[in-house]
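Kindly inspect this one:
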Amino acid sequence: MKPLLTILGLALLAVPVVGQEVKPAETPPLAFVTEYIRELAQNEDTRAHLEQDYIKANKTGGQVAIMEGIYVSTRIQLELRDQIGRLKDIHLSKEFDFIVQGIIAFDEHKIDIHQRYIEILGAFVGGPKPGVDYGSLSAELPKLRADLDQTDHDLMDVVPAILMTLQDPRPDSKNQCSHLLITKAEKVKLLGDLRTHFGAKLEEKNPPYLVGSAQVLKAGLSQQGWKYADDPWE
């Protein structure tokens, strides 16, 4: 049996000093990319389904369309907040941690846009009210939609950096970074996740930006010439 003082000493070493920053455990890049694909698919699935519901409501018109619009934006806000919570638990290497913070910032911006949608649509609930400039509010809606489209476009530009997190930074004998940090089976699993979530959308021409992000991921993972973590080094 170890002496009590030795056991206590080891326990004290495990307790962080007050004021000392405890560095969170680094998230494996594979876990990050897997989660990103899941979130991307969830966002696209919500966008596609709720867009159809919104179109149907607009055909009905009136208060039905307004209430449906509030529902759509609220639902998207809830999903984005859940995703932000998951992303805050992800900690990449110092070189790539900016990616997670950037995605969170984009998601927070989208939440703000949808909040403005809710506020504008809420002004139309119950009919006209005195002192409200409904013309200006109506004109603001397409601008908000354009802002959402631009945000998804900017997120698509982040995908190449997301793919780079999977690259092994160690050079081979030719001084080239030719290996990935994942095995070939893990790459196949990521591609399978994309096919499962997006299906035929992966082949669409001029797709929505969220689908475009999935297509960039697929192209990067399918690129020939990579060696994998379980391949021999030269």
Remarks:
- Residues 27-126+134-222 form one domain.
- Residues 29-60 form the longest helix (32 residues).
